[in-house]
Amino acid sequence: MCAECDTKIPGKASDAFGIPTYDAHTIEEKWQKVWSEENVFATSAVSDKPKKYVLEMFPYPSGDLHMGHARNYTIGDAMARQARMRGFDVLHPMGFDAFGLPAENAAIKHNTQASAWTYKNMDQAIATMRRMGFSYDPNTLIKTCDPEYYKWGQWMFLKMWEKGLAYRATSPVNWCPSCNTVLANEQVVDGKCWRCGSIPQKRELSQWYLRITDYAQELLDGLDNLEGWPESVKQMQRNWIGRSEGAEIKFALAADDGVTPTDRLITVFTTRADTIFGVSFFVLPPESPLAAELVAGTEYEAAYLELKAATERVSSVDRQGSEREKNGVFSGRYVINPLTHKPAPIWIADYILMDYGTGAVMGVPCGDQRDFDFARKYGLPIPPIICEQDDPLYEELKDQKDMVIDNVSWDHAMAAEGYLVQSGEFTGLKGGKHSEAVAAIIEKLEELGIGKETVQFRLRDWLISRQRYWGNPIPMTHCDCCGDVPVPYEELPVQLPASLDLGKGETLAAYAPFYETTCPKCGKPAHRITDTMDTFTCSSWYYLRYCDPHNSELPFAKDKANHWMPVDNYIGGIEHAILHLLYSRFWTRVCRDLGLLNFDEPFTNLLCQGMVKDENGDVMSKSKGNVVPPSSVIEPYGADTMRLAILFIAPPEKDFDWDPKAVAGCNRFLKRAWRTVCTLAQTAKDEPFEIQNASKDSKALWREINRCIQKCTFDFDRMQFNTAIAAIMELANAADDYIAAVPAAERDEALSFICASSLVRALAPICPHWAEELWHEQLGQTTFVYCAPWPDYDEEAAKADEVEIAVQVTGKVRTHIMMPREAAKDELEAAALAAASRWIEGKQVIKVICVPGSLVNIVAK
RNA sequence: GGGAGCGUGGCGGAAUUGGCAGACGCAGUUGACUUAAAAUCAACCGCCCGAAAGGCUUGUGGGUUCGAGUCCCACCGCUCCUACCA
Questions:
Q1: What is the 3-state secondary structure (H, E, C) of A167-191?
Q2: Nucleotide nearest to A239 (CA to C1')
Q3: Separation of alpha carbons A713 and A735, rounded Å
Q4: pLDDT confidence of residue A79
Q5: Contact between the CB of A400 and strand B at under 7 Å
Q6: Predicted pLDDT at A837
Q7: Which helix (H) or strand (E) holds A274?
Q8: In chain A, what's the furthest Cα-to-Cα distance?
């Protein structure tokens, strides 16, 4: 910059001391061009070095990248670059999750093609990635909407079909009326569509599923071994899989007299078999076909139909929540309790779900709050069958022969812990989930052949059909005589037609050139399946394709996947804790069982980065108008300041509030450290440092260098970039102290070089352009700093010869003494006692604790 | 209702895992340079009392220990996830 008029002076500006100005834009453009031309980010050749696969979750190209992407990719890029410097073979790829509904909506709005919109956005995102200096191998750039990629998704679908892992079924599904498609269970978030927030409707449709429930137990067990995953994510997956241990129990339907058991059995699932003596009613959901059958043609039918209609009118979001009042009607029929042989009335109620367990529940108001609420509302009995041992009720009821059927003083169900009463031979046993009472009663039921121990999962099969255009077509045909017939492998991929006019409302289902086909089996005219696959199928295996991105024979070669996988560091947002991360764990296991690879888990270490919020701690959003685009930092300060700020302001897993002042502070540091390196470079010589003859100042700086690199190396390993940067700042401060204290002519040339080169290399993964420029122009290096070795450190050299020892008297720091680092315990003790004489005078020293190199605690009374 | 996590200066956050709390940075105060401002540089910067010596301090209360931000128990507060899942 010109000091007078603030315009930029072309060429290399420098100050009175011959130090060039730090001009971020010029050097960033310069090195981005060189890196690209020299193809320096190509994946390292497979060698005998250890491998490291660093992966950031690929973006959906909905526009340009935002701060969340910038943070995600900066973390990964720093990891990948440092791993390369540490001597790993590194795979660091990037691509795009390019199928999806926003492209269709944009195409309609702007009267263009979904593909055109998608490719344009991808180009823009690629340009921003380049401007950020990210080190992606361009050879791995996968776009999931390319036929070379989605062909293999279809291929794997067919393999799953052959193994029975893909199937078609008709069942009630979540239909989003705004997106005009069905949604997977995982995609109904808070009772709303995950994408648009509309409330899905239940529809009975024939849809395609992947059998993820076959892997429920394995997916659950696998979590225990994922030590590199955040506990919160593992817990979310555990909850989602939702394993419940319990029992299935058969209740006989009573004949019309209400007391005589018939042969017709109705099965319930319960986790609380111990409470079976407290069953005072029985409940079916309104959607239950059995419920409809029981009331058909009876006086109860009208009330039932009304309840059913009312339930259907209530949206699923309103039906959820325990606050909602429970509604039910009596069916007129009874079941017989298999242990008490007493009848219980069958009710039909809206708080029971058709698709969990067996779709029938035994009502135990004493042990379950929901059943309790329902019983109170409809005046059903609440027989006490469980209570605390110190409750007077316990003594009263434990030997009771005739059933006491209610205790009107109760206002809520009993807590889980308690002991059984009024429960026949089981009275006195401890009840609760997994209790001895549960075990005893299940044993009894099994003996009688009317029940068995069983495990229930909450996880449902993965519904992958989408009635949308911009996705991967399901490679199946339907023939009137042969049924569902797979498209032969040699005809893959089933190509998406490019010319669909979405603006005119054309859909795949109504587009004859797409759906008209012939049956691969019998050759007669047939109908192509027009559903496309959920985009989460595309993102469930992209990390495998990166290992072998151009394979035309297979999705990926087994040896390449086995070499690079699993991903060593996977970085992305917590919003994928269930959806993407669970699907990918499933898909990897399917690939394993198809013989495509040899491991179970795709991601060894997972880092969920926190959100980037605005200055007030609010989430950035277009509607709030508080979005800070990456360009607003890159333009004034450059990409290196942006990268430094993102990593320095907060640890990666925490949310961070955008603070423009702190960003300016990071830019200030880069400028200051630039001057520090340039100043050191003026007296630098690349030769070994001789510590023996070094001055006191030199020795101190040498120690700081080693301390900094040790700390930095440790912090990179645990991905705590904020403290790594703090250590680099400390070294820069120490170097400034050295420069201030020692005149240029007296500076140690070897040390000057080592210090400058350590600063440059330690910061290189974080601020690569800054480092590359100084590495070449100030330190005269000819290789790329990207390929330079990570600086070494000497643990011994990082320690001071003389250390300050804290002297405590009974746990309180009173004074400090300087001691040689290797001082023996008795020396330390003697020195400390002398130094602390003031505080221990007249007291008796009971004992002295010496922690070498740190402190002495004198316990005195 | 169930689960997970967190609580440290004015702010973001450190603390080598039981050993000197507050690293590093932001903000702030004072000074230098400047006609002035910005930028830059230097010093200060948890709270209280004080002339000094000192005392207090990691949400609150208790415990273990020579020693606790860190471990244990109880409570208070916040955040996220999940939910008529039987």
A1: EEEEEEEEEECCCCEEECHHHEECC
A2: B82
A3: 19
A4: 96
A5: no
A6: 82
A7: none
A8: 111
**Contacting residues 705-734/A vs strand B (CB within 7 A):** 720, 722-723, 725-726, 729-730, 733
Which window residues (575-614, chain A) lie with Cβ within 7 Å of strand B?
A: 578
Residues A185, A596: Cα–Cα separation, whole Å: 28
- Which range has the worst mean pLDDT, A3-12, A214-223, A553-562, A821-830? A3-12
Q: What average pLDDT is seen over chain A?
A: 89
Q: Would you state the pLDDT for residue A793? A: 92
The predicted-structure confidence for A602-655, as pLDDT tens digits, reads as follows 999 999 999 888 887 788 877 778 888 899 999 999 999 999 999 999 999 998
Whether A456 CB is under 7 Å from strand B: yes
Q: How far apart are CA A76 and CA A228, in angstroms?
A: 16
Alpha-carbon radius of gyration of chain A = 35
Q: Within 13 Å and on the Cβ side, how many CA atoms surround A535? A: 22
d(CA A806, C1' B50) / Å: 25
Find the nucleotide nearest A662 (Cα to C1′). B26
pLDDT of residue A578: 86
Q: Which residue is nearest to nucleotide B24 (CA to C1')?
A: A726
Crossing angle of the two packed helices A721-741 and A639-648, in degrees rounded to 10: 110
Report which secondary-structure segment, H or E, holds A195: none
Residues 481-540, chain A, CB closer than 7 Å to nucleic strand B:
none
Place A70 in a pLDDT band, splitting at 50, 70 and 90: very high
- CA A254 – CA A338 distance, rounded (Å): 11
- pLDDT of res. A268: 93
At position A786, the amino acid (one-letter code) is Y
Evaluate if the CB of A139 falls below 7 Å from strand B.
Answer: no
Q: Which two tokens stand for residue A339?
A: 């242990």
Tell me the mean pLDDT in the region A251-268.
93
Q: Phi and psi dihedrals of A65, rounded to 5? A: -70, 145
Instruction: Return the percent helix, strand and coil in chain A, to nearest 5.
Output: 40, 20, 40
Closest CA to A856 of A842, A843, A840: A840
The spacing between the Cα labelled CA in A231 and the C1' in B61, in angstroms, equals 30
Whether the CB of A825 is less than 7 Å away from nucleic strand B comes out as no
CA A649 to C1' B63, whole Å = 37
Q: For residues A496 and A508, give the distance between their C-alpha atoms in angstroms, rounded to a whole number.
A: 9
Which nucleotide is the nearest neighbour of A186, by CA and C1'? B82
Q: Cα–Cα distance between A835 and A838 in angstroms, integer?
A: 8
Summarize the confidence of residues A171-186 as an average pLDDT: 78
SS3 for A571?
strand
Any strand B atom closer than 7 Å to A861 CB: no
Which of A370, A365, A402 minimizes the C-alpha distance to A384? A365
How many other β-carbons are positioned within 10 Å of the β-carbon of residue A821?
A: 13
> How far is A835 from A407, CA to CA, in rounded Å?
75
Of all nucleotides in the shown strands, which has a C1' nearest the CA of A857?
A: B66
Which nucleotides of strand B come closer than 7 angstroms to any CB of the protein?
Answer: 1-5, 12-15, 19-21, 23-27, 39-42, 54-55, 66-68, 80-86
A321 touches strand B (CB under 7 A): yes
A415 touches strand B (CB under 7 A): no
Average pLDDT over residues A577-593: 94
Question: Residue A14's pLDDT is what?
Answer: 63
State both tokens at A49: 């070095």
- What pLDDT does A10 receive? 40
Q: Is the CB of A851 under 7 A from strand B?
A: yes
Q: Which of A80-84, A344-348, A609-613 has the lowest mean pLDDT?
A: A609-613
Nearest to A681 by CA among A734, A759, A741, A740: A759
Is there a contact between A644 and A24 (Cβ–Cβ < 8 Å)?
no
Residue A326 DSSP label: P
